[in-house]
Amino acid sequence: MKTTNAKTMHPLLRKIGPLLGCIVFYIVIMLLRRADIINGYYMQVMLFAGVNVLMTASLNLVNGFTGQFCIGHAGFMSLGAYGAAVITTMVFKSNSIPEAAQIPVFLLGLLCGGIVAAIVGILIGIPSLKLKGDYLAIVTLAFGEIVRALLRLIQPIGGARGMIGIPNYANFFWIMFFVVLTLWLLRNLIYSPYGRAFIAIRDNEIAADAMGINTTKYKIMSFCIAAFIAGVAGGLYAHVLSFIQPDSFGFTKSADYLVYLYAGGSGSLTGSVVGAVLLTILPEVLRFLATWRLVLYAIILIAVMLYRSEGLIGGKEVPFLRIKRSSLYEKPWVGRKKNDMSAE
Amino acid sequence: MKKFLRILCLALGVILAVSVCACGSSEKEGSVETIKIGLAFPMSGMAAMAGKYSTHGADVLKEELGGKITVGDKEYPIEFVVMDTEGLEEKTANVYQKLIEEEKVIAIAGPDSSKCMLAAAPIAQNAKCPAITSFGTNTAVTEVGDYIFRACFIDPFQGAVAAAYCDEQGHKTACIMFNNADAYSVGLKDAFIENYKGEVLAIEEYSGSDVKDYNVQLTKLAAQNPDVLLLPNLNVELGLQIQQARTAGLNCQIVCGDSADTPDVAKVAGPAIEGVAYVSAFSAESTDEAAKKFVDAYVKLYPDELPNSNAELTYEAAKMIVWAIQNAKTLDRAGVRDALASIDGLELPSGKMTMDPETRNPIKGGIIMQYDADGVTHFVSTVNP
């Protein structure tokens, strides 16, 4: 695997280079927006792409790095969306607070949304992650449906009709801010001893247990962090669309994120970004095909899975998301068979 | 592997190039003053069937216009830009942005569901582009702003249609049994009482769909011996209610809202269903002149199917936009909006339509349908309250 890029790069550049790149990217986008080369339509697709990156990256932490299988991720998204929307539209009425207070209220809402999702994540993680095997898949599937059914019943937040009039605070800056922050935090987390523990559990849970890793603790930790990020992403989603209703966070949405994850490449943060961005944009690009576009979209997905079963970027990372011992991540889909762990 | 990637990249590149070309050419057409109307409907996904009928309804209008629209004494080419919402909120929001920002449409018809419209309406409102939802019955939709209109009537309005029908039929006294836990039921009941010219003898209530025994209420109502019984309730409740009403001795006319328009109601009620009338938005059997014309044109285009409410309401929404373009003071979005709000007595398949400029809800006729002994529905009359 070519790691020369990362090794030859100046340490300082390696550290702040990506951040500079993000700032430049942001400025370029905003300039193009001002010049009206990028219109509101492109802008909105980019906002949804950003939310999807957050969702896919958080799902990656559970499915790709810890080797568990969560298929109700949209459930956490809905908790976060409702949590944040309740703060910004009901607790603090958006039109009655001064402009300066809007951003703190928005951030508070996102935090609350994330915390609600994380707490629920711990609650359903404890019983289901104590066991080895696919229990989490079944529990999260049921969880997604339960959340949807419960949200439909709660009348003060709109019930089945949904919540309207959520202020659209989530502009490009905030989406980009949270995407960069999340990717940076996830990279460092995976680089840390905690992350190594997650990967050890993914590669061989019994061996990890034998090495003294408290597998239950680490699995719940990974699940809880992922739920928190999904909650924040849900909050952002609510403030992009300014309307949410329980049924939009159904199983199909969870399945969408699974598709983004595995098409991009599980076990790779770069893969999550590429998968989510590409597959958000692709159906929009294909619009000129009218009804045929979803057929072509599906064919492209099948082709990717047939010829690159590890996903588009499976097992690889761009330099600034890669940790030094990159061989750990070389081929997660055959992780168990790897015997060159100490190659570098 | 590498070869495959190369092919994939090439394919994606070609697609991008073609789409860019497609965008370019549509802009050129825009420069010869084509008037564009956006149609946002679910062409795929769970609601694809509704979307199919909707676009077919719009096709009838397209055929009628023949690609041209006369505004004043000038003739413009007209184009309907159809886009797929997949029945999803985010996709609808994207479609709205694309129609408004890229296609530069003058107005948008659709989508058909309230939830998609609620996600898209703020975008249309911010961009000041008039939009008409065909089937979004939620009252909150048009409350988003003054650029958001509705082609269908809202639920409570059915109460007014029912009241007008009862008056027309010469029913002097009425009784009502309604579900006090449901907004649909309460809305219909209130609108009925407000508009009914006869006398409401008694009102009984119950709460929730889990009630299965209505005998106490129905026996009390039977003692009043009314001319008509209004049951503005949900479809899961209606079957039992109709059956029990007949058993309790209420042999008068029974009138329901559009929730009675499901086969289950007739199945549960059994033979008791005979003669039960309900309010509906549209019927292909309608004898109204404009309706017949529409149905004939539709069947000519699509010989294998009959238009349903989706098709008819989309036709009406698009027709309203066309009328508004022709009658706008200025040929832009604001002009079309003002014209839409001023619609008064426009002939549409479901009857004469007037737009309420305050709420942007249509004031128009409804259809009364009636069940026969076999549980088959038949058109009775068009009612203009």
Structural class of chain B, please?
A: alpha/beta
Give the beta-strand count of chain B: 16
The CATH class of chain A: Mainly Alpha
The fold-level CATH name of the largest domain in chain B is Rossmann fold
Net shape of chain B: elongated
Q: Could you estimate the helical fraction of the residues of chain A in percent?
A: 55-70%
- Secondary structure class of chain A reads mainly alpha
Number of domains of chain B: 2
Calculate Rg of chain A over CA atoms.
Answer: 20 Å
Order of helices and strands of chain A: HHHHHHEHHHHEHHH
What proportion of the residues of chain B form beta strands (DSSP E)? 15-25%
**Low-confidence runs of chain A (pLDDT<50, min 5 residues)?**
332-344
Low-confidence stretches of chain B at least 5 residues in length (pLDDT < 50)?
Answer: 20-31
Summed over residues and divided by their number, the pLDDT of chain B gives a mean of 87
Largest interface: A-B, 32 and 37 residues
**Order of strands across the main sheet of chain B:** 8-7-9-10-11-15-16
N-C termini distance of chain B: 69 Å
Helix fraction of chain B, binned, reads 40-55%
Counting H and I runs of at least 4 residues, what is the number of helices of chain B?
A: 12
| Overall CATH architecture of the largest domain in chain B | 3-Layer(aba) Sandwich
Largest sheet of chain A: 2 strands, antiparallel
